[in-house]
Amino acid sequence: MTALDARPDTTATLRFPAGFRWGTATAAYQIEGAAAEDGRTPSIWDTFSRIPGKVRNGDTGDIAADHYHRVSEDIALMRQLGVTDYRFSVAWPRVQPTGRGPAVQKGLDFYRRLVDELLAAGIRPVATLYHWDLPQELEDAGGWPQRETAQRFGEYAGIMAGALGDRVATWTTLNEPWCAAFLGYGNGVHAPGRTSPLASLRAAHHFNLAHGWAVRELRSRLPAQCEVSLTLNLHAVRPLSDSAADVDAARRIDAVGNRIFLDPVFHGRLPQDLVRDTAPVTDWSFVRDGDLEAASAPIDSLGINYYSPTVVAAGSSPAPSPWAGAEEHVRFLPAPGPRTAMDWPVDAEGLYELLTRLRDDLPGVPLVITENGAAYDDYADPSGAVKDPERVAYLRAHLAAVHRAIEAGADVRGYFLWSLLDNFEWAYGYSKRFGIVHVDFATQRRTLKDSAHWYADVIARGGLSS
Ligand code: FCB
After folding, report:
1. What pLDDT digit, counting tens, does each position of 308-347 carry?
2. Edge-to-edge strand ranges of the sheet holding 330-333
3. Ligand 1: centre distance to CA 47 (Å)
4. Structural domains of the chain, ranges and CATH numbers in brackets
5. Report field, pTM of the whole predicted structure over 0.90
6. CB of 372 sitting under 6 A from ligand 1
7. What's the CA-to-centroid distance between 374 and ligand 1, angstroms?
8. In the prediction, which pLDDT does 4 show?
């Protein structure tokens, strides 16, 4: 192939910048299966999914999309799509089953093989160290509300950097610490299912600390060209009206949803309004000298996961709520417009709002969309095709919003579609399908949905055609 052949097709009407990364994303517990193989021990999600009533249909990640045994097949699918990058996560209990001590060789071997096969396929590996599967032993010792868990995470990051450092292009410390802290320890809809506002705020702080300590470990072991990053599910918060009370409700959610991570990580400080808002819950005395400095170790990019916006007004939320300190002041409203199968509103404008806000708030920080996508009730028709026009419309609208944000000066370097495969969608089990590749969970047969063919075309063109 000549350099000319490799150039994106100039017929795309919305062309993305040269070098833009086109990827798909997955997470270990959602696709791997092989939950008890090769030394892996239970994570908090193995435990949580076995508690009756916590996950729809009693589904677990025991088998999931059986990716552990189908790595080569799944990489072949990615080649077919033409993705430049693949974002996956490492299952901590697979490589360090108790969350302490030396690594399990077989666990490391699995990720080494995955990374080597990706590189052989010309696909850049983007690894996330924590996508919610805490080793159960660490939860039994107190979990994320305990400071020691952050220390353990730093050590685990060091192990992974030592094992694979030179081969992984981008290391992401955490995926969506907001969900892990506030859904896991606040309203308990995610593992480990605790319901304590104080525990959720302690967890959030220890995630910031764990991130900072992991960055330190990664930097000390990685070659200079490796990138280090963090992925947040930032909330595109909109007040219902411009009344002072509604605007203040939005400020509260921005504090406990966004700035609780952005301020420590990018500015080495806690938002003072968050400290005031949460005074009935905590005095933040668990934050020790030097913690915020550790949390703000410089990173190379910020990953953003976006699905839909958050509309708020003054009022109160039903208990139990994940919004520590804000429950009595904020009510949540459905955004208007069409919905996905998750009942999440389809609203690409929220992504544009987020990206242009970050352009202004974090100048000089490259941005990457590390997740965006939609669940619909897909099925294979008698001809074997999976027609998902709503997903194509969703993706097109959101990519157009990313393009518009880039034109408006946001430094967006890549887009990872969630998800490559239908998978275990946490508390929804297998009832929600986010993949652009359909998985028949009875046979593990993979079928490219229409959206997969569409995405392959977008990648080949380097943008959206009219
Ligand atoms: C995000 C998670 C991801 C997936 C999508 C739908 O919050 O990071 O694992 O479940 O939502």
Report:
1. 999 999 999 988 899 999 999 999 999 889 999 999 999 9
2. 237-239, 310-314, 330-333
3. 19
4. 14-461 (3.20.20.80)
5. yes
6. no
7. 10
8. 42
